[in-house]
Specification:
The complex is a heterodimer.
Chain A: E1 10-14, E2 20-22, H1 23-35, E3 39-46, E4 55-61, E5 67-73, H2 91-101, H3 121-125, E6 137-142, E7 154-160, E8 163-170, H4 178-184, H5 190-195, H6 202-217, H7 223-251, H8 255-276, E9 285-286, E10 289-290, H9 296-322, H10 324-330, H11 338-344, H12 348-352, H13 360-363, H14 368-371, H15 384-408, E11 426-433, E12 438-445, E13 451-457, H16 460-471, H17 479-486, H18 490-494
Parallel strand pairs in A: 2-5
Antiparallel strand pairs in A: 1-11, 3-4, 4-5, 6-7, 7-8, 9-10, 11-12, 12-13
Helix pairs in contact in A: 6-7, 7-8, 7-15, 7-17, 8-9, 9-15, 15-17, 16-17
Chain B: H1 2-14, E1 34-36, H2 47-51, E2 57-58, E3 63-65, H3 74-78, E4 84-86, E5 93-94, E6 101-103, H4 115-121, E7 125-131, H5 137-144, E8 157-159, E9 168-172, H6 180-189, E10 195-199, H7 201-205, H8 219-222, E11 227-229, H9 236-247
Parallel strand pairs in B: 7-8, 7-9, 9-10, 10-11
Antiparallel strand pairs in B: 1-4, 2-3, 3-6, 5-11
The chains are: A alpha+beta, B alpha/beta.
């Protein structure tokens, strides 16, 4: 496989040089890698540009940070064997392939629709929930509309008294046809559309898109621009982690934590607004350019705002972590063991709270995070407490890192939009570690250099199952805390 | 004793977080209300129209539809005549979708209240929020209206859990097909008389998702909203001010 370019976090390959297996070779390589030391990042379909059998793409990351990307396919209409029983982390990818391409995934133990793409509501209402039977067993149905201001999704609990034996999450309510729209949209519409796939991760999505387009269009970006982009990404992480801590505090009725983490979040997102006009970093970054200037005023503003947060968060953290009510409510509930997290393929922040070290910022080579490493944060215990602690420690690490990067970044003027011509017949895998976990986008161009396929993957696709596992054998009133501690995206799953 | 000292430190550092005057607040850096200059366009220039990701701009006469605009600034950057300038203005709501179009010498139509709304809801307004395909941008900003900074509750405006307790619904998101039935159920459960408020470009026009076959916007053909709040997502100040105007609140000072 010839690598044309390797922008940090984006891997571009000409399609005719992309390793392409026949079905059996593909299954063999999948098994070998899944059983070995490589880590699965994605498994998705892409329609063939010539006939009806879709290609199955696999993306792995090796232990020394290399991205491995290959594809394979069978005959049109032929059966495809499921690997989920052997490797449970394949479950969501195979369900998606079944839904999007009609592949049979023979032997899949849980082949249910993942988002009801293009299907009507009546089919949605017939969702085949897992049932428990017994005299004392009862069912609790919640949603799609929840009590708070939150995205919709349906949760079905099978309970024995107050104890949750099983939780099944039925999603799809947020489906907006993102992947189809991305194919229809002209280039100018792609960045704002990609920022709206998951609005709380607008920067992570936007940067993943930028890198993919830059790799396809041979655009280089100055090191200072990359630094400012990373500051944008870390601001998003800090803001969302502060919001998450505030939410967890709210859910256990610890009001000092709720209000003080909440107001620190406001400080951080208002800093984003002064840097780019939007509290969520929207329209800050576009392929090949920086849209807003970066000067000493901005550097001073970053320092002043983050130092304020650093000063206050020290005693706010102390009060939170030493409070008896917080310890009592978070320390022992909703455990996700390292083994289960590994088995079902949990990624990102939630995986790091179960003792894993999955963080693309420290795993991958190249870019600002290799030049200036950011400490890996991992907590071994896997309870709600650990998911809170990972946030607390990541906020600290990100703020220190941003302050250093902001001092290193030279002044940059706002750029002008570059001419974008995409290389024909290429595929690019682009990745970014957002606050929730790894965001992946795969773009493929046709012979004219038009985008022929656009795949989007949010960490939530994989992590929802982890949340459902964590709440098992806990009481039903622990569920909101568990849900907030994972803080997953409904839109990211539903697309 | 130590933990008590620390708790007091937390409380003291919190200070007073609320914005005393939500009508006169100054959100530094916010990219809000665009102002359209009277400068004539260059002959045949369509740079703004071609740059717009949501077809929010029409020419001859020039109009920028804030119900579609996602405030990305691209038109302002590319216009050779500097015809569009985004300001920090956050009064971005109107009673109708048409009222959100800004033109040369004409800003958006400000929100008006009615005697009936003032009488019924002027001192207490409870709202249920339904996200129907919202990306969690609008949802976060609607949540922020109730936080310690914007503190909408001081005006008697609250977000409630049950539609039975609500006087109206705030809708965010482009109205996905799969949420159509749930939205109808929620709306039916709200006792009469009731209001509909749309928050954000997606809810108002479909926004960046306009034209997706996975949307079902028929709710808006059956029910007429009283308030449209522009933005992507709308700033909490836009939401609070819009609702205060709708309630006929005189100054919003506290």
């Amino acid at each position: 496989m010839t690598l044309i370019t390797n922008h940090a976090n984006a891997r571009l390959t000409a399609l005719d040089e992309l390793t392409t297996h026949d079905y059996h070779e593909f299954q063999t390589e999948m098994r070998q890698r899944l059983a070995g030391d490589d880590r699965l990042v994605s498994y998705f379909g892409a329609p063939s540009q010539t006939d009806a059998a879709p290609f199955l793409h696999a993306v792995f990351i090796t232990q020394n940070g290399e991205l491995v990307h290959f594809r394979g396919r069978g005959e049109p209409g032929a059966s495809v064997a499921s690997l989920t029983s052997e490797f449970p982390e394949m479950h969501c990818f195979e369900r998606e392939l079944h839904e999007q391409y009609g592949l049979d995934m023979a032997g899949h133990p849980w082949l249910k629709p993942i988002r009801f793409e293009g299907r009507d509501l009546e089919q949605m209402n017939e969702y085949p929930f897992y049932k428990l039977k017994g005299k004392e067993v009862h069912e609790v149905a919640v949603g799609p509309i929840h009590a708070g201001v939150i995205e919709p999704g349906h949760f079905r609990f099978m309970c024995f008294g107050e104890k949750v034996h099983h939780l099944e999450i039925h999603r799809g309510y947020q489906h907006r046809g993102v992947e189809k729209l991305l194919l229809k949209a002209p280039l100018r519409r792609l960045p704002p559309l990609i920022e709206s796939v998951v609005g709380d991760s607008a920067v992570a999505y936007s940067l993943t898109h930028c890198r993919a387009i830059e790799a396809l269009a041979d655009l280089d970006v100055a090191a200072d621009v990359e630094r400012i982009r990373a500051i944008g990404l870390e601001l998003e992480r800090v803001a969302m982690h502060l919001g998450g801590l505030s939410g967890m505090a709210t859910d256990i009725a610890y009001l000092p934590g709720s209000t003080s983490y909440g107001r620190l979040r406001t400080t951080v997102i208002n800093l984003s607004m002064r840097l780019c006009g939007s509290r969520f970093g929207r329209s800050w970054f576009r392929p090949g350019e920086l849209r807003f200037p970066f000067t000493q005023t901005h550097r001073d503003d970053i320092r002043k705002s983050l130092e304020l947060v650093q000063h206050d968060i020290a005693f706010i953290n102390k009060s939170f972590t030493e409070s008896r009510t917080v310890n009592h409510r978070l320390r022992t509930i909703c455990h996700l063991s390292k083994e289960v997290a590994l088995e079902i393929g949990v990624v990102g922040m939630a995986s790091r709270a179960s003792g894993l070290s999955r963080d693309l910022r420290t795993e991958m080579r190249g870019g600002v995070y290799e030049e200036h490493p950011i400490p890996l944060v991992s907590e071994p215990t896997g309870h709600c407490w650990a998911r809170g602690m990972v946030r607390i420690r990541e906020i600290e690490a990100s703020m220190n890192w941003m302050l250093a990067q902001s001092d290193l970044a030279h002044d940059v003027d706002a750029g002008t939009p570059p001419q974008i011509t995409l290389r024909p017949n290429c595929g690019v895998v682009s990745l970014e570690e957002g606050w929730r976990g790894e965001v992946m986008q795969y773009l493929e161009t046709d012979a004219n250099g038009d985008i022929a396929h656009y795949k989007v993957q949010d960490p939530s696709l994989r992590n929802w199952f982890g949340m459902a596992q964590a709440v098992k054998n806990n009481t039903i009133y622990d569920f909101p805390i568990c849900n907030k501690s994972f803080d997953l995206s409904y839109c990211g799953n539903d697309l | 004793m130590k933990s008590l000292t620390n708790a007091l430190k937390v409380r003291a550092s919190q200070g007073k977080q609320f914005i005393p005057d939500v009508r006169g607040a100054k959100p530094i850096g916010f990219r809000g209300l665009p102002v359209i200059s009277m400068a004539p366009c260059e002959n045949g220039c369509t740079a703004c129209v071609e740059s717009c990701p949501t077809t929010a701009i029409e020419l001859e006469p020039f109009g920028l539809d804030l119900g579609r605009c996602i405030f990305c600034d691209q038109c302002a950057r590319l216009c050779p005549q500097d015809k569009v300038e985004f300001t920090t203005g956050y009064r971005l709501a109107s009673n109708t979708a048409e009222g959100l179009v800004v033109r040369e010498g004409k800003s958006l139509s400000p929100v008006a209240s009615t005697e009936a709304i003032r009488k019924l809801f002027g001192r207490s307004l409870k709202l249920r929020v339904v996200s129907a395909g919202g990306c969690n941008g609008c949802e976060q900003e609607i949540n922020a209206t109730t936080n310690v900074n914007f503190d909408m509750g001081r005006y008697g405006i609250d977000i409630v859990a049950s539609p039975r307790h609500a006087d109206g619904v705030i809708i965010s998101g482009p109205l996905s097909t799969h949420m159509a039935a749930a939205l109808d159920l929620c709306y039916e459960a709200i006792p009469e008389p009731k209001l509909v408020i749309l928050a954000g470009a997606c809810a108002i026009s479909g926004g960046i998702f306009e034209g997706s076959p996975e949307l079902n916007r028929s709710f808006l053909e059956r029910f007429t909203p009283s308030l449209y709040v522009a933005g992507c997502p709308p700033h909490p100040l836009s939401i609070v001010n819009g609702i205060l105007d709708l309630m006929g609140h005189a100054d919003g000072k506290w």
